[in-house]
Amino acid sequence: VCRLSSVSTRAIERDLAALEDKVMTLGQEADRLCSIHSDHGDQIRGKHAEIMATWEMLKAKAQERRRRLDESYLLHRFLADFRDLVSWIHDMKAIISADELAKDVAGAEALLERHQEHKGEIDARERTRLTDYQLD
């Protein structure tokens, strides 16, 4: 849903960029018409002001939509990362909680090596998560 909304929003933003030139041209045309038809100048300026107010409102709505879409994307990304992290934590807890004991020196060294690998993975994930979601 977020991807479709993002594609749709980008299309709207492209359309607005293309229309902005037309709106500015319309403003120049309004100025030209006011100079030619001074008796209708107030009416022309009023219509132009109405167009500009509507245009600004439309641009503000597009910006608000972009802001909300970006926030929604960040929320979904955070929740997906949260689910992945919780799953990983459960897996690590199961690995760490295993009551496996070494029967000889080679087995103890292998367990110690696995422990160091798991600790390295935990430390790496912790650094990654802390940099991904720094709170301001």
From TrEMBL:
UniProt entry keywords in alphabetical sequence: Repeat
A Pfam family that the UniProt record links to this protein: Spectrin
UniProt name for this protein: Uncharacterized protein
